[in-house]
Amino acid sequence: MQRDLRSELANDEPQWGKAWNPQHGEILVGILRSYTRASNNFGPCHVANVEDEQTGQIVSVWLSSTVLLDLFRQHHPKRGERLGIKYLGKHPEKGYRLYRLLLDRGEEPISFEPLGGETESPADDSGDPNDLFGWPSKTDSIQPSERFREKLKERAGIS
After folding, report:
1. pLDDT tens digits for 117-145?
2. What does the alpha-carbon distance between residue 18 and residue 39 come to, in Å, rounded to a whole number?
3. In angstroms, rounded to a whole number, what is the distance separating the alpha carbons of residues 110 and 104?
4. Among the listed residues 26, 30, 19, the one whose alpha carbon sits nearest the alpha carbon of residue 88
5. 48 vs 62: CA distance, rounded Å
6. Collapsing DSSP states into helix, strand and coil, what is residue 72?
7. What is the dihedral sign for C-alpha 75, 52, 16, 40?
8. Which CATH number fits domain 12-103: 2.60.40, 3.40.1360, 2.60.120, 2.40.50?
């Protein structure tokens, strides 16, 4: 679906707000209105502009913390979504800032698609077709080593 850019520009409100500089435990809840880019002392940075639901004001959340940026990368908040960010303080040993990010999307279904670290095995057409776990197992033919058997006997007190 295309955005109505003409309408958005006609009703354009300032997208920049006061920078969110939270204290330990502070929470920001609101609607994500836009993303922008800006520069700070370290270079270019992503900024999420959130309409605070308590004040109605735009708050600029600079995603300059690696932890916060990673949370946004992981969850992909979209314009118009309601989100909540909590500042958890600094890591006790390493000193970096910790955050929690929640999105008001309802519960998303869990995907069990491969993540990349899994090993593939060919389908096994033998065995019980109603067995969802692929009986007989691919490991049925694996036997413990002689050394392992000896250790078991030793622990059990069998000579």
Report:
1. 766 555 545 555 555 444 455 555 667 77
2. 15
3. 16
4. 26
5. 6
6. helix
7. negative
8. 2.40.50
Give the pairing type, strands 18-19 and 58-62: parallel
Domain ranges of the chain: 12-103
Q: What pLDDT, in 10s, does the model give residues 24-73? A: 999 999 999 999 988 888 889 899 999 999 999 999 999 999 899 999 99
**What's the rounded Cα separation, in Å, for the pair 108 and 118?**
23
Kindly report the pTM of this predicted structure. 0.60
Grouping H, G, I as helix, E, B as strand and the rest as coil, residue 35 is strand
Here the tokens at position 127 are 């065995």
CA distance 134 to 130: 9
CB half-sphere exposure, 28, CA atoms < 13 A? 25
d(CA 112, CA 86): 29
